[in-house]
Amino acid sequence: MNKKIAYRGDIFYFNDTATLENVPRKKAKSEQYVYIQDGVLIVEAGKVLETGGYAELKDKLTDIKIIDYRNKLITPGFVDTHQH
Predict the structure, then answer these.
(1) d(Cα 37, Cα 34) in Å, to the nearest integer?
(2) DSSP at 54
(3) Full-model pTM
(4) Does 68 score more than 60 pLDDT?
(5) Could you tell me if 72 and 43 are in contact, meaning their C-beta atoms sit under 8 angstroms apart?
(6) Are 48 and 74 in contact (CB under 8 A)?
(7) Which of 71, 54, 70, 66 lies closest to 7 in space, CA to CA?
(8) Residue 12: strand pairing partners
(9) How confident is the model at residue 15 (pLDDT cuts 50, 70, 90)?
(10) Sign of dihedral through CA atoms 26, 28, 30, 31?
């Protein structure tokens, strides 16, 4: 039986693959990435079930073990991130 685990901290991840064509040219809010200050990442069996702000998700965490990484940045594994 797999149990859910929640990781609390600042969360950063990309929505899309960055290329020279889709890099924002102006100083505008980018939709290529997501940054959540004081966020929660809920995981079960190695798969992300849900992510969002702690304030929005705290009621879902009553029976879930929380690993506290506040003041730390949670990111996906950057595996083989080079481009040619």
Answers:
(1) 10
(2) H
(3) 0.75
(4) yes
(5) no
(6) no
(7) 66
(8) 35
(9) confident
(10) negative
